[in-house]
Amino acid sequence: MGAGHSHARPAEHAGGRFRSRLAAAFALTAAFFVVELAVGLVSGSLALISDAGHMAADVVALGASLVATRIATRPDKTGRRTYGSYRAEVFASGLTVLIMLGVGGYVLVEGLSRLGQAPVVASGAMLVVGALGLAINVASMALLRSGSKDSLNVRGAYFEVIADAAGSVGVMAAGLLIIVTGQQVWDVLVAVAIAVFVLVRACVLGRQVLAVLGQHAPEGIDPDAVAASLGAVGGVAQVHDVHVWALTSGMNVATAHLVAAELADHHAVLDAARDVLQDRFGIAHATLQVEPASHHGCQDLAW
């Protein structure tokens, strides 16, 4: 019986490559949060306060993302974290989801409670702050867009910024509608719309986080296709116990048992199977066990 694994690893995990961009987005967001909250409190606008609350969530989420990328690259000195600390980024994304759910839920409840009794707000201040917020959000989106395709951690921050951009547009729309119609209720309606949008984005990101923590097969990788490709390797008679999951964004892992045909070269089987996983599925870290056809020990496994 033979077992082995590929030693190829990404030079740097996905989130770490975009740490400087996360830091820039964090600085922009933190600075604008202070401005928007102050103007929201002075003007009495729920839309501004709700968007500031979401900005506060962004500050925390982006800060957590930065800390997570630092932790993920830190070497383990205990010898017990055999997979390193890469999952820290996934936990940071989970924290972002919880923050988004909390902020969205609070604003939704507060907005509904104000229906029918909307206070007078300073619509001009809403337009100015909304425009400034949109400019900062667009800049942050440009910083994080490329990283959102590779890193779940960065994607969480990117989703937060998208929600903020929508909030800024909503604040501007509310200010304009109040000026045109004279109806203060638009402030509350826009705040509720922002809350619903935030909650929907939180659910989308939450499903992705749970898929990683639940060790589901990574998006775009079909376990049946992996098993079929391994089974087509020369010298492989049977494939079983195939497991594929994501350690964190851009770092997929696989294990499998390969039953070799009679007289097959186990070393050749191992090398060919490793190449299939690397070249066809982008799985750089795979642990493969090659078994002779006469081996039946794996049948004793109860799960």
UniProtKB/TrEMBL annotation:
<dbReference type="InterPro" id="IPR036837">
    <property type="entry name" value="Cation_efflux_CTD_sf"/>
</dbReference>
<feature type="domain" description="Cation efflux protein transmembrane">
    <location>
        <begin position="23"/>
        <end position="213"/>
    </location>
</feature>
<keyword id="KW-0406">Ion transport</keyword>
<keyword id="KW-0813">Transport</keyword>
<feature type="domain" description="Cation efflux protein cytoplasmic">
    <location>
        <begin position="219"/>
        <end position="292"/>
    </location>
</feature>
<feature type="transmembrane region" description="Helical">
    <location>
        <begin position="185"/>
        <end position="204"/>
    </location>
</feature>
<dbReference type="Pfam" id="PF16916">
    <property type="entry name" value="ZT_dimer"/>
</dbReference>
<feature type="transmembrane region" description="Helical">
    <location>
        <begin position="121"/>
        <end position="144"/>
    </location>
</feature>
<feature type="transmembrane region" description="Helical">
    <location>
        <begin position="90"/>
        <end position="109"/>
    </location>
</feature>
<dbReference type="InterPro" id="IPR002524">
    <property type="entry name" value="Cation_efflux"/>
</dbReference>
<dbReference type="GO" id="GO:0005886">
    <property type="term" value="C:plasma membrane"/>
</dbReference>
<keyword id="KW-1133">Transmembrane helix</keyword>
<dbReference type="InterPro" id="IPR058533">
    <property type="entry name" value="Cation_efflux_TM"/>
</dbReference>
<feature type="transmembrane region" description="Helical">
    <location>
        <begin position="52"/>
        <end position="69"/>
    </location>
</feature>
<keyword id="KW-0472">Membrane</keyword>
<comment type="similarity">
    <text>Belongs to the cation diffusion facilitator (CDF) transporter (TC 2.A.4) family. SLC30A subfamily.</text>
</comment>
<feature type="transmembrane region" description="Helical">
    <location>
        <begin position="22"/>
        <end position="46"/>
    </location>
</feature>
<keyword id="KW-0812">Transmembrane</keyword>
<dbReference type="GO" id="GO:0005385">
    <property type="term" value="F:zinc ion transmembrane transporter activity"/>
</dbReference>
<dbReference type="InterPro" id="IPR027470">
    <property type="entry name" value="Cation_efflux_CTD"/>
</dbReference>
<dbReference type="InterPro" id="IPR050681">
    <property type="entry name" value="CDF/SLC30A"/>
</dbReference>
<dbReference type="Pfam" id="PF01545">
    <property type="entry name" value="Cation_efflux"/>
</dbReference>
<feature type="transmembrane region" description="Helical">
    <location>
        <begin position="156"/>
        <end position="179"/>
    </location>
</feature>
<dbReference type="InterPro" id="IPR027469">
    <property type="entry name" value="Cation_efflux_TMD_sf"/>
</dbReference>
<protein>
    <submittedName>
        <fullName>Cation transporter</fullName>
    </submittedName>
</protein>
